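Worked example 3. Consider a protein that binds zinc ion.
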Amino acid sequence: MVSFKCKDIGMDCKFEATAANVQDLDDKIARHAREAHKITSLDKEMWTKIHKAEK
Ligand SMILES: [Zn+2]
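Given these inputs, the predicted complex is written out as structure tokens:
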């Protein structure tokens, strides 16, 4: 299991996600970014940050 907290990348947001693997987790994060933060495409820098925050 891997998990992610939006606040770990400096967002003022209570979103938390868990998934069986990183790929599924990335999907959930991308969807959350779109729906909650209106970020339609996460750039490379953002993904680097996200991957560091995933555990
Ligand atoms: Zn968030």
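Take a moment to read the result before moving on. The pocket of zinc ion is lined by residues 6, 11, 13, 15, 32, 36-37 (CB under 6 Å). The chain has a mean pLDDT of 97.
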